[in-house]
Design brief:
This protein is α+β, with helices and mostly antiparallel strands and 438 residues long. The chain folds into 2 domains: 169 residues, FAD/NAD(P)-binding domain, CATH 3.50.50; 191 residues, D-Amino Acid Oxidase, subunit A, domain 2 (D-Amino Acid Oxidase, Chain A, domain 2, 2-Layer Sandwich). The protein is built from 14 helices and 23 strands. A 6-stranded mixed β-sheet has the order 9-2-1-13-23-22, sandwiched between helices. Strands 15, 17, 18, 19 and 20 form a 5-stranded antiparallel β-sheet that branches. Helix 3 packs across helix 13.
């Protein structure tokens, strides 16, 4: 393929984990379609694909019947296999989800049942069993916990680099960096033409939008997803300078999340493949899409759009809900409060936390692609996939989007090969699961 490519069988916008796995899977279709993958940045992994925690979630939290409950479970197995087969860093350490008080015990049992429904390997363990798994469990953890053996931690950057090299070696994929989606020229049931950021036009019978933080903006140009707006949230971590092996830690420890909305899993511990102990995250507002630090990447239009959403929330019945939620998250981001939350989970720091305060430092944050329904001002909890004619849009691919990527790509391949909708594959999966259960 040449630099002046104007036609391609499949055009994918976005070279993050979703776009890379999508191109890889679609390249194996029987007709060997020509695939063009556009990435606006000079390097892959500048955003959530590389900046996420690296945790391969098991699929416990997500509502039965949702995209997340299917693709997280299947994606976990696929991504684990990919790491092992390609000798990529992976720490198969499992995860404990703990109740911090007696009032949370019924929720532990409810989450246990949800995990079983979602076909997630799970065990309900008592205090003694939990402390055999993790001897440094917090002193106040005296209630039943959930043990998730299929939760692992991988290295996002290593996976992305390996995927990039693999994709570049596939003859029917043209991976183009420093050239992203620019604007829509026209679209129909059979064809879409876009203009790139380099001012050239590309025509394709299948356009797939995997643009992460900008997926909703692109979808809006197609007239799709107009009822949703982005409310970007920055995940802040603290990293301990002391390697976790020196503490003798074995596994990840998470608090019990709210079951009605899994947007915030609370401050938890993560053990990285590089030997680091990470605490967090806590979610604070980002005021434009790539608002990582200070005024970096500032875009006035994005700032105004996001502030308009916050103003709408401020004058709505949702104000107190969001104010309380955000206040709690901002409070946690203060280092002493961060440490206090961590001490509820692990017993490795002195009571005053004086030594820990000197060892903890901020890690680079990721920004989640959180959509909000502009009609109800409620968070959208599931992945949002819109299919219309010659274009498909993958929006709201926040956690567990990274874990789910290989499974999502496989279903997109099935969708194209069998000329069925992506949504119908999800429904068929859950219907089959219900039939087997019956």
């Amino acid at each position: 393929m040449t630099k002046n490519l104007l036609n391609t069988d499949i055009l994918i916008a976005g070279g993050g984990i979703i776009g890379l796995t999508m191109a890889r899977a679609l390249s194996t279709l029987p007709n060997r379609p020509s695939i063009t993958l556009l990435e606006k940045d000079s390097n892959i992994g500048n955003h959530s694909s590389a900046l996420n925690s690296g945790v391969l979630h098991s699929g416990i939290y997500y509502a039965p019947g949702s995209y997340k409950s299917k693709h997280c479970v299947i994606g976990n197995a696929m991504l684990t296999k990919y790491c092992l087969e390609n000798k990529l860093p992976i720490f198969q350490c499992g995860k404990l989800i703990v109740a911090k008080n007696e009032q949370e015990v019924p929720k532990i049992h409810e989450l246990h049942q949800r995990a079983i429904t979602n076909r997630v390997p799970i065990s309900l363990v008592d205090e003694q069993e939990a402390k055999k798994i993790e001897p440094h469990l917090g002193k106040n953890v005296k209630f039943p916990s959930l043990w998730s053996p299929s939760t692992s931690v991988a290295n996002p950057k290593a996976i992305l680099q390996h995927l990039e090299q693999e994709v570049k070696s596939i003859s029917n994929i043209n991976f183009i960096k420093e050239e992203g989606y620019g604007k829509l020229i026209n679209t129909s049931d059979t064809s879409t033409t876009i203009e790139t950021t380099q001012k050239r036009q590309i025509t394709t019978p299948k356009f797939i939008n995997c643009a992460g933080l900008y997926a909703d903006k692109i979808a809006h140009e197609f007239g799709e997803g107009l009822e949703y707006g982005l409310l970007p949230l920055k995940g802040l971590y603290m990293i301990d300078k002391k390697p976790f092996k020196e503490y003798g830690l074995n596994t990840l420890i998470y608090p019990l999340p709210p079951l009605t909305s899994n947007n915030f899993l609370g401050v938890h511990t993560t053990l990285t493949t590089e030997g680091k102990l990470k605490l967090g995250p806590t979610a604070v507002p980002a005021f434009w899409r790539e608002h990582y630090e200070g005024s970096d990447n500032f875009k006035l239009q994005e700032f105004l759009e996001i502030m308009t959403l916050y103003m709408r929330i401020g004058f709505s019945s949702k104000f107190f809900f969001y104010a309380k939620l955000l206040l709690n998250e901002v409070k946690k981001s203060y280092k002493p409060n961060f440490l206090k939350e961590a001490q509820k989970l692990i017993n490795i720091y002195d009571a005053e936390g004086v030594e820990a305060m000197n060892r903890l430092h901020s890690g680079k944050s990721a920004i989640r692609t959180q959509l909000i329904d502009k009609r109800t001002l409620a968070f959208l909890n599931d992945f949002h996939v819109v299919e219309r004619g010659s274009h498909v849009h993958f929006m709201n691919m926040a956690s567990p989007g990274w874990t789910s990527s290989f499974s999502i790509a496989e279903d997109m391949k099935k969708s194209v090969e069998n000329n069925v909708s992506f949504e119908s594959l999800n429904k068929a999966y859950h219907s089959e699961k219900e039939n087997k259960k019956a």
